[in-house]
Design goal:
The structure is a single chain. The chain is of the alpha+beta class. It is rod-shaped, with a radius of gyration of 52 Å. Among the domains are: about 310-400, no CATH class; about 405-490, no CATH class. The chain has helices spanning about 5-10, 15-50, 55-70, 85-90, 110-120, 125-135, 170-175, 190-195, 220, 230, 240, 265-270, 275, 285-290, 315-320, 320-325, 345, 365-380, 475-480, and strands spanning about 85, 100-110, 150-160, 190, 205-210, 235, 255, 285, 300-305, 330-335, 350, 395, 440, 445. Helix 2 (about 15-50) crosses helix 6.
Length: about 500
């Protein structure tokens, strides 16, 4: 071509400079599109690898267990319940259950085709992925799709049993995740379902509308196994038991305390009975109260005897104090067991600061019932410093009224025998006889110190004489009066 021809082309009237600029812009757009395609291929490759090579078990688990819900649609509403088991919430069904109904298909390809697919998988990287996606399978098949003509054989295998099973025995499965509760099995008192691994007796394995994934409200759950009807029907029912809030007192799994209680009996009872708790600081405590045995006397659920006693008084007290029962069978005894008097009328069943668990000390405990007329005269008498129990026994006696011994022997610890007719029938007849072998014609009873002469609780007269002031003869004349034809004791 000649030189003028070349010049004509470069200086053409169509604007050669604009054409060059357009070509550069097209190449830029092409490069941008190429980079975008490469980015999309990278995302595709990474996502495929992420899902297919097991880098995230959670994602794979969700995809795998979505299959379960396709058949077990009745479980879908459970996801919206109040309490959902974590493996179930994460759709990790195979944490507890073996899969079933899974089909595996195997295809065997001809040598070169199989070798090419293996190499293709190994060298799959971003630029090559783009080339493979663009240029592979010119016959219209999708990438990776196998040509049916090249398949040597195809087999399908069903793995696992047709029925799904637990991955471990039912009584061991829960320990796989809840092993932290294992030490509770070593506690001395355990709940039978917990000890035997029957967790699903109380808990729903998937989801529940009740706290702790219980199968039903705790107020209803316990009574399905523990028949409480008879106790509920008793005259008095413990408020916690009546409300069926069993877990206020009991641990549902295991405990160090008898009855699988959440705490010792004393500490547990003190929670609701602070008025009794303060008694734990008293100096004298009843042994059942001191040694954490509240249920030794009280029914924890319901009773026909107030206040929630195992049996009525005094029969309850006789279970431990059998020797006292015999006292109340004696001729003279306090009317214990009647509507007006019981053991707890004098003794605090928990604790006091006084010996014998008495409510008060000295004679005050007796004055609670014997204030009129005894207290007024006794506190002014010569006996005022003598406690009642010095002469009387509090429970029962063979000598009335509740005396510790017969008269005059009961008086001799304080009054010398030499001042009385101690030897009846002896040579010393200068002492007044006070023996029961003599008859008191005034009192119409056996003669004693107190039959007609003295009031042991005091009187308005000297020497606690009953009827007349000393030294007048009025007291003597009650029995030794001059009556024609009748002579008593002394011959005037």
């Amino acid at each position: 071509m000649s030189e003028p021809d070349v010049s004509a082309i470069d200086a053409g009237p169509d604007g050669g400079e604009e054409t060059g600029t357009t070509n550069r812009r097209g190449r830029g757009v092409f490069a941008a599109v190429l980079v975008l395609l490469l980015l999309l291929c990278a995302i595709t490759t990474i996502t495929q690898s992420y899902l297919s090579r097991g880098d995230d078990e959670v994602v794979r688990g969700v995809l795998r267990n979505l299959e379960c819900l396709q058949c077990h649609t009745e479980l879908i509403p459970d996801f919206s319940r109040t309490a959902v088991h974590q493996p179930f919430m994460l759709e990790r069904c195979t944490t507890c259950h073996t899969p079933h109904g899974e089909i595996r298909t195997e295809t065997v390809l001809k040598g070169l085709e199989m070798a090419w697919n293996r190499v293709r998988t190994l060298v799959e990287w971003l630029p090559l992925k783009l080339v493979l996606d663009v240029f592979d399978t010119p016959d219209g098949r999708a990438p990776g799709e196998v040509d049916p003509d090249r398949v040597v054989s195809e087999t399908t295998t069903e793995i696992k049993d047709a029925e799904s099973e637990l991955v471990m025995p039912a009584n061991e499965l829960c320990w796989m995740c809840h092993g932290n509760m294992g030490p509770l099995r070593a506690e001395p008192y355990t709940h039978a379902p917990f000890m035997n691994g029957y967790c699903v007796d109380c808990h729903d394995p998937h989801a529940s509308d009740f706290a702790g994934m219980l199968t039903q409200d705790v107020r209803d759950l316990c009574v399905t196994c523990h028949k409480v009807g008879p106790e509920m029907a008793r005259d008095q029912v413990h408020p916690s038991f009546a409300a069926r809030v069993c877990l206020d007192c009991h641990n549902p799994h295991a405990s160090s305390y008898r009855g699988i209680l959440v705490d010792s009996q004393r500490s547990l009872c003190f929670t609701c009975h602070p008025s009794v708790a303060r008694l734990s600081r008293m100096g004298v405590q009843h042994q059942p109260f001191l040694y954490d045995n509240c249920t030794g006397c009280h029914e924890p659920h319901g009773s026909n005897y107030l206040p929630l006693l195992i049996k009525n008084q005094p029969a309850l007290c006789y279970d431990c104090h059998g020797e006292i029962k015999n006292d109340f069978l004696k001729v003279s005894h306090h009317p214990v067991g009647t509507i007006s008097l019981n053991c707890s009328s004098c003794h605090d069943p928990h604790a006091t600061n006084y010996v014998g668990l008495l409510y008060s000390e000295g004679n005050d405990i007796c004055y609670d019932c014997h204030s009129v007329p005894i207290q007024a005269s006794y506190d002014l008498s010569a006996h005022r410093s003598t406690p009642c129990w010095r002469c009387h026994t509090p429970h029962g006696s063979d000598w009335g009224p509740l005396l510790k011994g017969p008269q005059p022997e009961v008086c001799f610890p304080c009054h010398a025998k030499v001042d009385f007719d101690d030897i009846t029938g002896g040579n010393d007849r200068n002492k007044h006889p006070v023996r029961p072998v003599f008859y008191d014609v005034n009192a119409k009873s056996a003669l004693s110190c107190t039959s007609s002469c003295h009031n042991p609780h005091g009187s308005q007269f000297y020497f606690m004489l009953r009827h007349y002031q000393f030294p007048f003869d009025g007291n003597c004349l009650i029995c030794h009066g001059v009556v024609p034809g009748e002579i008593v004791g002394v011959d005037f």
